[in-house]
Amino acid sequence: MSTRRQALIALAAACAAGASGSAFAQPWPARPIRMVVPFPPGSSPDLIARLLTEKLAAALGQPVVVENRPGAGGNIGTGMVARAAPDGYTLLFTINGPLVTAPTLSRNLNYDPFRQLAPVTLVATSPNVLVVDARLPAHNLREFVALARSRAGELNYGSPGNGSASHLAMEQLKAMAGVDLQHVPYPGFPQVTTAMVGGQVQAAFMVPAIAMPQVNAGKLRVLAVTTTGRTAVLPSVPTVAESGYPGFEAISWQAVLAPAGTPQAVIDRLYRELVAIIGSADVRDKMRAQYFVPAGTAPASLRQTMASEKTRWDKVIRAAGVQPE
């Protein structure tokens, strides 16, 4: 009787252990996933993230919820993801600023994007456009530079935060053109647009998806694009380089990352699903309609992009004398 009782107890324990083990070995994903966008609703990363999440949710069989956490040029939300549990249930959708220039320009950055974030894929790239208040007497880049020189220190330019591609593009232009403009940072491009239309700032480098509706409405004027050659999304707009500043380049890009330590199987699955989504005809058409060029690169390629971009922008930061904040 004692032997039979011991056998039953052992069997019950084995079943309990098996049930417990299967609970911890649930296939990913077993619950909703949050996609943190460290910029406000309506910003360009928010728009593209929402374009992807519905299809990603369908592919994964779980909801993928966009969570906006703006502030400090994207550093707040990025840091939150960097410190999140690496379990595959928190992802980051961000632009280049918090990844490649924040380590140089932020004195008290509480995350290391190269050590605490795992690249998944480069989603898309976009030229920036130099836009000005349509009431400004400048119809091309040369006229804008002449005006800025005649009103040294009087004109303001907006950006979505210190170290953003928008900010550094203008600092690069300031250094190359020898003009003095005052920087006014905002939480995101929607706020920059509102400030420009309201007359608080007179110029900005912006992504076309945000700027062009206001240009088409006659409230802003586009002067140049920041690609080295003319871009197919705005073929009639001259480049900064051809307008008198050879070598000028400042593009924006967007990417998906996860906390470092996220299981490789999860990274690989996310990469495969996202590349398939980015490559789908309807998503590519929608991206191009918002002036984005679809990408979809391997995780290792995104890491290389981060490293090379950091090297390039560090040189711009030093040359322009931009100080950490």
From TrEMBL:
Cleaved signal peptide residues: 1-25
InterPro entries (alphabetical): BUG (IPR005064), Bug_dom1 (IPR042100), TAT_signal (IPR006311)
Assigned keywords, A-Z: Signal
Top-rank taxon: Bacteria
Family recorded in the similarity comment: Belongs to the UPF0065 (bug) family.
Protein name in UniProt: Extra-cytoplasmic solute receptor
